[in-house]
C-alpha cells in the first residue's frame, strides 16, 4: 500500500503548515494597541458592515493623528485587525475565538448586527476580553449578566415605540391600529418586542403582524393587507434591504397609510435612492448629525458628517457614528485605567460617563448605554425634489414639525 | 495490514495530541472534524450511491436544534429560555450541562435518522437531478420553517447553554475538540466497516445502473434508505456538536445553512474524490486550510478564490484529488498496470 505513504506525507505536511502559521500578535506591540473586530464585509449585512468599518477607521485615524492614547506616560496608537464574518453568526463566533486565542487580541470591537453580537459575546465573556460594541442592540444581550460587553447604543426595543406613542398622542390620546412587518432576525424581532410593549401600554391594537424572510426583497403580501385593513401606523424593520423594499413597494402599490415608521433609512440612503417616494417616512435613529453633542475629536455632529463625507463620499449613517464613538469610549477607558490590564480596563469602561459627538455615554450594569435617547427623523423633500432627513422627535432637537398624517398618493 | 495499522495509529495519536500541539487552533480543528464527518457521510450518497443530495444539511440542522433543545428542556422550561430572544437567564450546573449534552446528542443522532427514513421512503424514488433539486428544497424549507417556530427562538435565534466554569479556560475548546474528534473516529470506523461489506457493492451497483441492480434482485429502495439513514445519524451528531461549539443557533445561517455547509460538504467530497474512503477526508482538510488561509491573508477575496477553486476542480480534477492520483499512479493504489497494454491502448486512441 503505497497509498499510505501519500497520506502520511500529507499529514506531516499539514503539521508543518499548521505549526508555521501561528501568528504572534499581542494586545500591545511597541506603541500600538491592537483591537480585534469581525465585520460583515460580505453577505447580507455587507453595506452596514462597511458603514461600521468606516466608522471605526475614521475614529482610529482621528485619535492617532490627535496624539493617540496616553497610558502610563507613554503614547500609543490604535490599530485594528479585521476579519470578514460573512454576515454569519457561526463564522463570527469562530473569528472571535481566533482573534483572541490565535492573534492574542485582548480588546475587541463589536461586529454589525445583534445576531452576530449574540454569537460573539459568549466568547469574549469567557476569555474576559472587554468588548465595546456599537451595532448589537438586541435587548437580550443586556440581560445575560455579561460583564465585558459594553454597547454605546440604546437597545432595539426602544427604536420605534416612540413612534407609536406619538401616533397615539396625535390621535387625541386614543389607541391606534398598527400593522407591522419584521424581518426574521434578532434585531428586527427585538424592535417588534418594543412595539408590542408600546401597543400594550397605549391599548393599541396590532391588526397585522407579519414576518419577513431574511434577504427580503418582496413584501407585497403584507402591503396588500395594509391596503385592505387601513391601519393608522405601518411599522417595517429589516435592516437596509427592509427599508429599501418597503419604500419601493409602497410607492409602486400606492399604499396610503397615515404613519410609516421604519429603521435603517439613513443606512439605506433612502432619501437619495428613492427621492420623493421616501418622503414622510419616519425613521428611528441612534444619532443624527444635527444633534448638539460635542467632543474634542470630532467637535460635533455636523463637523463629523462633513469630515466623513470628505473621506468616504457619503453622508454618515448612525451606524458609522456609533462605531466611531466606540473608539472614543475605548480611548477614554484606557486613559482612566492607565493600564492594559483587562480587568482594570473593564472596570474603567463600566465607569464611563462622557459626552461624544454621538451622544452621552454611560453604561447600565447590563452594558447598554442608558444616557442617550433615540431620535426620530422624517424624510422631507422640497419642491425641487431634493430630500433630507429632519429630526422631529424628541422635541429638544426637533428641527422640523412632524407631518402627519401622510398625504394620500392621489394628492401628492 | 501492518502498515495500515501504523498509519491509523499515527493519525490517532496526531488527533489526540493536536489540541495540545496547536492550542490556539482548537476551534478550527473541531470544525475540521465536523467538516470531515459531513463530507464522509455525504459521500455515502453522492459518491458511492450516485445520489447527489443537497439535503443532508436538514439532518445537521435538525440535530443542532434538537441537541440544544434537549439540553435546555431537561432542566428548564424551553419556552422561557428562548422567549424574547432569550432575555431570561438560566444557568446550567456542570453536571446538568454534560448530562444534557449527552442526552441531547443521542436525540440529535436518533431523530434525524428516523426522519431520513421517512423522507427517504417518499423521495428516494426520484433519480438524478430530480432528487438533487428535491433535497435542495428540503434544506431551504426547513430553514424557513424553523425561523418561524417560537419555542426554538424563531428569528431571534437560540443561544445554547454556555459552557460551565470547570477547569481552565481551555476546557471548553478541549471538550468540543475531543467530542468532534471522537465523532470523526466513530464515523470513520463505521463508514470503513460498511465499505468492506456487500452493502457498499450494492450502493455501487445502484450508482452504476440502478435498473440492472433491481433486475438482479436487489431491493434498491431499502438500501438507499438505509444509506441515507446512516448519513443522517452522523450528520445529526455533527450538528449537535456544532451547535454547542458556536453557541448561537440561527435558523438559516447556522443550522440549515444550505448555502454554506450544505454546498461545502458536496464540494469537499468532490475535491477529495467522491466514491473513495479517503477522498472526502483529504478534500475537507485541504478545503478548510484553503478557506482559512484566504480568509486570513486575502480578506474579501475568499469567495472569489473559492469560485476559482470550484472551477479548477471541475475542469482539472473532475475525479477529485484521489481520482487524479489514482490515474497518475495506479500502481500505488494496488492496481497492476501492464505497461505494454497501456501503451498499446494509448496509441490506439
Briefly characterize the structure.
The complex is a heterodimer of chains A (about 400) and B (about 350). By secondary structure, chain A is α/β, with parallel strands linked by helices.
Q: Can you give a write-up of this model?
A:
The complex is a heterodimer of chains A (412) and B (349). Chain A is of the alpha/beta class and 412 residues long. Chain A folds into 2 domains: 28-153 and 291-362, Response regulator (Rossmann fold), CATH 3.40.50.2300; 158-285 and 382-411, Rossmann fold (3-Layer(aba) Sandwich), CATH 3.40.50.2300. Chain A has 12 helices and 18 strands. In chain A, strands 1, 2, 3, 4, 5, 6 and 7 form a 7-stranded mixed beta sheet that branches. Chain B is an all-alpha fold. Chain B has one domain. In chain B, helix 2 packs across helix 12, helix 5 (94-123) runs antiparallel to helix 10 (220-246) and helix 12 packs parallel to helix 15. Chain B starts with a helix and ends with a helix. The mean pLDDT of chain B is 88. Chains A and B meet through helix 1, strand 4, helix 3, helix 4 and helix 6 of A and helix 1, helix 2, helix 11 and helix 13 of B.
Descriptive keywords:
heterodimer, A: 412 residues, alpha/beta, Rossmann fold, seven-stranded mixed β-sheet, 39% helix, 21% strand, B: 349 residues, mainly alpha, 16 helices, 1% strand
